[in-house]
Amino acid sequence: MADQKLFIDGEYVDAASGETFTTYEPATNTPYAEVAKASREDAERAIKAARRAFDEGPWPKMSGAERAEKLNKVADLIEANSAKFAEAEARDGGGTIKKATFADIPGGVGAFRWFARCAAEQPEQVDREPNPFPPSTNYVRYEPHGVTTGVIPWNFPFIMASWKIAPSLAAGNCAVIKPASYTSVSALMLGEIFQEADIPPGVINIVAGPGGTVGEELASSPLVDKTAFTGSTEVGRRIMQLASGTVKPTTLELGGKSANIVLDDANLDIAAAAVLFGTFFHNGQVCESGTRALVHESIYDELVDLLVERASKMVIGDPLDFASDLGPLVSRGQVETVERYVKLGRDEVGEPVCGGSRPEGLPDNLDHEAFYKPTIFTQVPNSAKIAQEEIFGPVLCVIPFSTDDEAVAIANDSIYGLAGGVQSTNIERAQGIANRMRTGTVWINDYHMITPDKPFGGYKQSGIGRELGVEGYRAYQQVKHVHTSTSTTKEEYLQFSALSGEI
Ligand code: NAP
Ligand code: MG
């Protein structure tokens, strides 16, 4: 059994209380690791280490190019250890080894490389037009906030840790990160990489422990200058309240109920793939999953047949087997949530056309109660609870529509606005619809294509601000305007001299 300690001030340490908690492998419901359980005291210790590293240490004084070199070294070292990270990711969270190998670890590496590039290439200072009155030169500087914190969820632990750490450090901040309690291991393992890459002590600290104490301290501490959170909308609201005490800039990536619109001119082969991948990738435990497929009535039956045929061929099994398309959900509790929603769906719209139960015939070593079949409900009114609420499981609602305007109206009829898709062979028409969708990302003839150089985030209750892209880098910086007077006589010196000629 692994033994994971907290990473504070450049060292692995036990929790001050000496307490630990067990993290499980959801596939087998067996203990995976004993993890040091931070308390508020440990969170404070980590924040103070980051504060010291920022106020007194070399990191914020280094040039962007120097920081970029260090972060590229981090990326190299992760790549060199990618099999180890992929295995931890799959075991601790239940996602497939295929997803961990081809999406999670490269996704984390990509974030470190992208933000390294931002540190090296984005200007730290930009001249602005000289002012004629009052005569002056002017420039704008981009500076680190100071200490940033990040609280992250269990669905993509490694990528989420990378998205919170890489931009913060690239911009010259020092950071404290809290992984989710179900999946703390891969984030904590990063400590070794930071040690090997010679990131100075305190620049990055990783503390596992309960959201209600450790997470709250990270979001509320007066020593913290900016906070970022990914997870449920409910906890996002709480983070905002906590951050408001010291008016901290706050980035939130929250829930979603994204619409994937299939137009009557879509290539159905591609559209079916985009809908299935968009919904069932990682069992739908993805905030931007396209869990509402809006399908034109003229192709509705044909597409549903394709979806059902292909969904039932997806291989559910041991996440450590490269042949598995779907592993378990993150916990039995998450399966129970899915079961509650499927029961609600049966009451609201009737029997699903596929799935609707746990899979049969899994090997004995697997925990049958942690798996669930891809499930599709058809003829779902958008007002149904299963179409409005985030389920975070393998459940697709297929909703019919008859005109483009109606499709846009249904897509936008949601408290969320994270992402969406349009499937069509007419790109101009598809982009016209994409531009009318009130969401942060739209994929045309595709889905889930998030890359580190493009901004990601939500409209409406899906969040505030953007991660990734240049936008996500700038989110980790303060903006300062410096005005330098070029006046040589007192008379033209102060712009208010007309009001206060005597001073
Ligand atoms: P969550 O409760 O929002 O947890 C996310 C993170 O916040 C975890 O690290 C959690 O710590 C921490 N946390 C919990 N309460 C906190 C508090 N009061 N103050 C500060 N931090 C706190 O999400 P979840 O339990 O993982 O999943 C619940 C639902 O959230 C899902 O069913 C899904 O709908 C949604 N979700 C969305 C995303 C997304 O990417 N948008 C990701 C995951 C889940 P602990 O792990 O210690 O509780
Ligand atoms: Mg676990």
Task: Provide tags for this entry.
binds NADP nicotinamide-adenine-dinucleotide phosphate; Aldehyde Dehydrogenase, Chain A, domain 2; 22 strands; 15 helices; alpha/beta; six-stranded parallel sheet; single chain
Topology:
Elements: E1 2-4, E2 6-8, E3 11-13, E4 20-25, E5 30-36, H1 40-56, H2 64-80, H3 82-93, H4 97-121, E6 125-131, E7 136-144, E8 147-151, H5 157-170, E9 174-178, H6 185-196, E10 204-206, H7 211-220, E11 226-230, H8 233-244, E12 250-253, E13 259-262, H9 268-280, E14 292-296, H10 300-311, H11 332-349, E15 375-377, H12 385-388, E16 395-401, H13 404-412, E17 416-417, E18 420-423, H14 427-436, E19 443-444, E20 459-460, E21 463-464, H15 469-474, E22 477-485
Parallel strand pairs: 1-5, 8-9, 8-11, 9-10, 11-12, 13-14, 13-18, 14-16, 15-16, 18-19
Antiparallel strand pairs: 2-3, 4-5, 6-7, 7-22, 12-21, 17-20
The chain binds NADP nicotinamide-adenine-dinucleotide phosphate and magnesium ion.
